[in-house]
Specification:
The protein contains ten helices and five strands. It is of the alpha+beta class and about 240 residues long. It folds into two domains: about 100 residues, Arc Repressor Mutant, subunit A (Orthogonal Bundle), CATH 1.10.10; about 100 residues, Orthogonal Bundle (Arc Repressor Mutant, subunit A), CATH 1.10.10. The strands form two sheets. Strands 3-5-4 form a three-stranded antiparallel β-sheet. The chain has a two-stranded antiparallel ribbon with strand order 1-2.
Amino acid sequence: MSTPDEATIEASPTNAGSTVEPSRLESMPLTRRIEGLLMSADKPLGEGRLANWLGLTGKGREAQVREAIELLNAFYAEHDRAFRIDRLAGGWQLLTHPEISPLLDHVHHEKKRRELSPAQLETLSIVAWRQPVLRAEIDELRGVASQDHLRLLTEHRLVQIVGQAEVPGRPNLYGTSREFLRVFGLGSLDDLPLVDGFERPKEVPSTAESSAPQDEEGLSEEVEATEEGASMDSTPA
């Protein structure tokens, strides 16, 4: 790359309580500032939110963020780094490559993750591909009751209530959450693989979020990292 200095990570010690003057921050390459933000974040950050923090203005500010991320990823690939910036759940996150995940188990062995059972994964799969879906429809497809599995998946924030059906009794409709996208490394529901007999679901806003702005900044602000849930192929750097 012609300008590797823009993406080079330079860690320098600072005195406790010291801060960098705003003028000095603004003079730093955009790539370096974005890299610093993503490296310290434990959840995906949207382009709008990054642009706000970086003080970018104008219509092209989010495009500036995307271009800087492309530069960083090109630099990481050129130098065979162990991580890259991936799009997750409407935002961007610095993640290690999946192939080194077994090595990271040595570092994170003390963090216990609750694995989903086959029945819970089956329930989650039906919700993912059939959403918005009624519990009765899930029960019919599985042939057994799914109430307990839905409750656990909701507790893990992988599934959420996205509305009520227009039928007597107004039963709840279930769909996947943004945490589901984060945990399974998906940018959106469009990234779900095609399955025979199922169409790709459309994005379904939840009732709790319907009154909030649905831009990327708003989406990523609500994404929170969790210790539990299904295992990820990529690990935050």
